[in-house]
Amino acid sequence: MFENISRRFQDVIKTVSGKATISDKNIEEAVEQIKLALLDADVNLRVVRRFVNQTIEEAKGEKVLRSVSPGQQFIKIVNDKLIHFLGDEKQDLQLKGPDTLSVVLLAGLQGSGKTTSAAKLANLLKKQGRKPILIAADLVRPAAIDQLETLAAAIGVAIYTDRENNNPVKVVKAGLKEAKKGLYDVAIIDTAGRHQVDDALMGEIEAVAKEAKPDEVLFVADAMTGQSAADVAKAFKERIDITGVILTKFDSDTRGGAALSIKTITKAPIKFIGVGEKTEDFEPFYPDRIASRILGMGDVVSLVEKAQEVTDKEEAEKLEKKIRKATFTLEDYLEQFQKIKKMGNLQSLVEMIPGMQGAVAPQDIDIKALKKEEAIILSMTLAERNNPRIIGPSRKKRIAKGSGTSVYEVNRLLKNFEKMRLMMKKMVKNKNAQQSMMSQW
Ligand code: GDP
User: Fold this and answer.
1) Is 228 a known ligand-binding residue?
2) For 236-281, what is each residue's pLDDT tens digit?
3) Residues lining ligand 1, judged by CB closer than 6 Å?
4) Domain 3-88 belongs to what architecture?
5) How far apart are CA 112 and CA 409, in angstroms?
6) Where is GTP bound in this sequence (predicted)?
7) According to the annotation, is 244 in a ligand binding site?
8) Third-level CATH fold of 102-285
9) Cβ 239 vs Cβ 267: under 8 Å
10) Nearest 5°: phi and psi at 18?
11) ipTM tops the 0.90 cut
12) Residues 362/368/371/375 CA torsion (nearest 10 deg)
């Protein structure tokens, strides 16, 4: 699913992700590409405009320019925007407790997947320990009652039908009476659709809703119809109070236009998605997961979030100054370890980077050695960390004992640290020399 839109977003990501600096012009170019991707995905034009304006506004702010990796930061903003337009948080059904009958009404066009979704929802609620009953009130489509009956039998859920009656309001009334009598706790009503929005359909659904007083009115929309799914939902919303959306045929949706338009156009959140023809192919809708699928990336966003927590540009500059002046101490070194630890297991961190999966073997990252070094530094006093030259033989013995290591290991750390300090100093000097040479040219 989402192959097309995902490919387009990947191109944008490739363009910006490696950039060490980002200008307003880069941002505008990337956002223009996003705009085209969204239009191509059949997202509603109003939604596209909002998306683009909000992204530009946030990306041009301080946050991106000041961050250590502006490209990644920009991607994070786009990801957050996608989540927002998909509906922010996962939204659950608002049902009454199991002692009282709750009513869920399904509405939508013919062929959108209403009947199938009614059975899928019943199946899900049954698995969650509820006692659902289906009410077959689609009296327009000839095979609808038979279809629901077959599905109900397959999932072992009760069903109310009345083939003699052609008044859906009466059928619903009798069905709900039956539901209360049988001590069911959720009644799911399948209603009639039409090929397009018309007054007769709207009048019928309004009358049914008035009778049923539903706790939830779920609009069933076919994801493959793109932004027109959002337009139809809006037309329904003008007549009945839609509380959520079931987006069907998500498995065949390569573009994502419906998913990205519906919440903004209707204010009703997507609560479930249909991901296949079987009754099990039904899932709650998680905006964050869908956003990552659209961006087609590993868990790069949590990676950026983690990196952000532990580094910022000012701190990096402070560190560079220390290195240059050779005042970088074991205490600073220790701080770096702790940052690495805060970012979690190094191996899993590497795995989160797209394209890096499997690239680094676990044995290449010597966590054990790092931990040992950390223990050694932690056993030193602050004075020792800031000036290792005072560490004579007796102090070394004490440190080795305190850290559960040997004097040999303490010596090795001190030697390596001194080597590293000199090398870092040289590297920073060279970098500055190069920069000043360049600026003289
Ligand atoms: P209704 O007229 O709204 O009741 O629509 P149906 O429930 O009869 O569904 C119309 C067609 O869409 C049927 O062939 C279903 O099998 C199919 N369908 C429904 N939901 C999904 C879904 O999530 N994925 C796929 N691939 N097909 C679906």
Assistant:
1) no
2) 999 999 999 999 999 888 888 999 999 999 999 999 999 999 999 9
3) 108, 110-116, 141, 193, 248-249, 251-252, 274-277, 281
4) Up-down Bundle (1.20)
5) 69
6) 108-115, 190-194, 248-251
7) no
8) Rossmann fold (3.40.50)
9) no
10) -85, 0
11) yes
12) 180
